[in-house]
From TrEMBL:
Keyword Transmembrane: yes
Reaction equations catalysed: ATP + protein L-histidine = ADP + protein N-phospho-L-histidine
Listed Pfam families: DUF4118, GAF_3, HATPase_c, HisKA
MF terms in GO: ATP binding; identical protein binding; phosphorelay sensor kinase activity
Cross-referenced Gene3D superfamilies: 1.10.287.130, 3.30.450.40, Backbone structure of the membrane domain of e. Coli histidine kinase receptor kdpd (1.20.120.620), Histidine kinase-like ATPase, C-terminal domain (3.30.565.10)
Annotated Histidine kinase domain residues: 237-454
UniProt protein name: histidine kinase
Record's signal peptide: none
EC number: 2.7.13.3
Gene this chain is encoded by: kdpD
Family annotation (PROSITE patterns): HIS_KIN
Membrane disposition: Multi-pass membrane protein
Alphabetical keyword list: ATP-binding, Kinase, Membrane, Nucleotide-binding, Phosphoprotein, Transferase, Transmembrane, Transmembrane helix, Two-component regulatory system
InterPro entries: GAF, GAF-like_dom_sf, HATPase_C_sf, HATPase_dom, His_kinase_dom, HisK_dim/P_dom, HisK_dim/P_sf, Histidine_kinase_KdpD
C-alpha cells in the first residue's frame, strides 16, 4: 500500500487498502474463504487494520505529492536559471523578445505574443508561434492592460471577450510592455502555480528589455556626444585652417594689386609663390574634408589592381617636394618587391598624408626616411622622422579625427584629419597602419602593412 501510494498517489492507494482489507478478511479471519466475520474481536481487528492502512496510505500519498511539487519546482528553477543566462547573452531587443516568448510558451504550454509601446499605442513585436496581427478586441485589451497596469482580456474582469489574456510587464521604472497568452479549450489559461511562474518569466524578460534599452540609450548618448565633439572640432578647424591660408592669399593678392608698379620682380614672384602655396594648402584642407566625408559615409570603394609599390612611393615623393623642401629625404625600397592589389590614387594619398605629417613635426634640416621591404607575408612601408616623437599616452590617439599633437603650448597647424584618412584608406584596401616612437633615436615611425597575395609576381603589375 505504501508503495502504491508513493508511486500512484492517494486514490490508487485507497483502492489497494480496500482490496487488502477484503483479502485479509477472506483469507485470515474465520470462517476463512468467506467475507463473514464470526468473532466480534476480529471485527475490531479488521477495522483497526483498515484504519491504519488508510492513514499510512494518506501519509505516503502526501509525501509523494510534496516530492513531486519539489521536483517540479527544482526543474522550474533550473529552467529559469537557463533562461536568465540566455537573456544575459542577448544583445538586441529582438533577441530578448524572441527568447522571452519562446521560453514562456515552452514552460507554460501556451501561445504567446509580446507587445511594446510605439507612440501612443502598443504593437506586436514578437510571438511564439510567430504572429504579427491581433484582432480589435485583443488590441483593445492589450492597450487597456498597458495603460492601466492591470490584466485584461480572457479570464480577467476587464474586456473578458478577448481571445487572449494580457498582463503588463513591469520594472522599477513602470510598465514597459504587455504579454498576451492564449491556449485551446475553455477555462482559465493559468493555474495559480502557472501564474507565479509567468510572473517570474515576465519580470526577467522585462528587466532584459530595460537593460537592452538602457544600453541603446547609452550608445545613442555617446554617439550624440561624439557628434557634438566632432562638430565643435570641425568648426574650430575650419575657422582657423580656412581663415589662415585665405588671409595669406588675400594679403598677397591685395599687395600685388595695390603696389604692383612699385614692387621689384623678386617680391612679385615671392607673393605669387605665397598665393600658390597657400592655395595648395587650402586645397589639401578641402580634400581632407571630402575624403573624411566619404569614409564616414562608407563611400570609399577601392579600385584594386596590381601596382608596383616603388612607383607609388616615387609619385608620392614628387607630390610632396614642396612640403619636404626643408628636409633631407632618404628612400630605401627593397628591390623586386611583389606587386600588390592597391588603388593607386588612395595609396598615394596615404603616403602623401604620412609625409606631410612628418614634414610638420620634424625640424628643418632633419631627415625624413621612407622604407619599403617585405617581412614574412606582408610588405611594410614605413615613414620615419626625426622630430620629438609621440607622447606615450597619446600614441593610440594620433589616428583620431581632428587630433593634433602639441609642441609645448602650441598646436601644430593642420586639420587633424590626415592620419585618420590614411588609416581609413589603408583599411579599405585590406591593410593596417600603426604609429610608434623610433627605438633608435627621437622621432615617430608610421608603418603601413599590406598582405602579399598568393602567387603574385612582378610580371603581374598592371600596365
Amino acid at each position: 500500500m505504501v508503495g502504491v501510494a508513493v508511486r500512484r498517489g492517494l486514490g490508487p492507494s485507497l483502492a489497494a487498502v480496500v482490496a487488502a482489507s477484503l483479502a485479509y478478511n477472506f483469507f485470515f479471519l474465520p470462517p476463512v474463504y468467506t467475507f463473514t466475520i464470526a468473532d466480534p474481536t476480529n471485527v475490531a481487528a479488521f477495522l483497526l487494520f483498515t484504519l491504519v492502512a488508510v492513514l499510512v496510505s494518506n501519509l505516503a500519498a502526501r509525501a509523494r505529492s510534496v516530492a513531486v511539487i519539489a521536483q517540479a519546482r527544482a526543474q522550474a528553477s533550473e529552467r529559469l536559471y537557463g533562461f536568465s543566462r540566455k537573456l544575459a547573452g542577448c544583445g538586441t531587443l529582438d533577441d530578448v523578445l524572441w527568447a522571452t516568448s519562446a521560453q514562456v510558451a515552452a514552460m507554460l504550454g501556451v501561445r504567446v505574443v509580446l507587445l511594446l509601446p510605439e507612440g501612443q499605442a502598443v504593437a506586436v513585436r514578437a510571438g511564439y508561434p510567430p504572429e504579427d496581427r491581433l484582432d480589435e478586441a485583443d488590441l483593445a485589451a492589450a492597450q487597456w492592460a498597458f495603460g492601466n497596469d492591470r490584466p485584461a482580456g480572457r479570464g480577467a474582469d476587464t474586456l473578458p471577450g478577448a481571445r487572449r489574456l494580457f498582463l503588463p510587464m513591469r520594472t522599477g521604472r513602470g510598465t514597459i510592455g504587455v504579454i498576451g497568452l492564449d491556449r485551446d479549450g475553455t477555462g482559465p489559461i493559468l493555474t495559480p502555480e502557472g501564474r507565479r511562474l509567468l510572473d517570474a518569466l515576465a519580470d526577467m524578460g522585462a528587466l532584459a528589455i530595460e537593460r537592452v534599452r538602457l544600453v541603446e540609450d547609452l550608445d545613442r548618448a555617446e554617439r550624440e556626444a561624439e557628434t557634438d565633439r566632432l562638430a565643435r572640432a570641425l568648426l574650430t578647424s575650419i575657422s582657423h585652417d580656412l581663415r589662415t591660408p585665405l588671409a595669406s592669399v588675400l594679403g598677397a593678392a591685395s599687395t600685388l594689386r595695390d603696389l604692383d608698379a612699385a614692387l621689384p620682380a623678386e617680391a612679385k614672384a615671392e607673393l605669387v609663390a605665397t598665393i600658390i602655396a597657400e592655395s595648395e594648402r587650402l586645397n589639401r584642407f578641402i580634400a581632407n574634408l571630402l575624403d573624411m566625408t566619404r569614409l564616414e559615409a562608407g563611400a570609399v570603394a577601392p579600385n584594386l589592381r596590381d601596382q608596383d609599390v616603388a612607383e607609388i612611393v616615387d609619385t608620392a615623393l614628387r607630390r610632396t617636394e614642396a612640403m619636404l623642401a626643408g628636409h633631407r629625404v632618404q628612400v630605401a625600397v627593397e628591390p623586386d618587391l611583389p606587386a600588390l592589389p592597391l588603388d593607386p590614387v588612395l595609396f598615394e594619398q596615404v603616403l602623401v598624408n604620412l609625409l606631410d605629417n612628418a614634414a610638420k613635426y620634424a625640424p628643418e634640416g632633419s631627415t625624413v626616411t621612407v622604407r619599403a621591404r617585405r617581412e614574412g607575408a606582408d610588405i611594410r612601408i614605413a615613414v620615419l622622422d626625426e622630430g620629438e616623437g609621440l607622447p606615450e599616452a597619446e600614441v593610440e590617439r594620433v589616428f583620431d579625427k581632428f587630433y593634433r599633437a602639441r609642441k609645448g603650448d602650441r598646436v601644430r597647424a593642420g586639420t587633424g584629419l590626415g592620419l585618420a584618412i590614411a588609416r581609413g584608406f589603408v583599411e579599405a584596401m585590406g591593410g593596417t597602419v600603426t604609429a610608434a616612437n623610433r627605438p633608435d633615436r627621437g622621432g615617430a615611425c608610421f608603418v603601413v602593412s599590406l598582405p602579399v597575395p598568393a602567387r603574385t609576381t612582378r610580371g603581374s603589375i598592371a600596365a
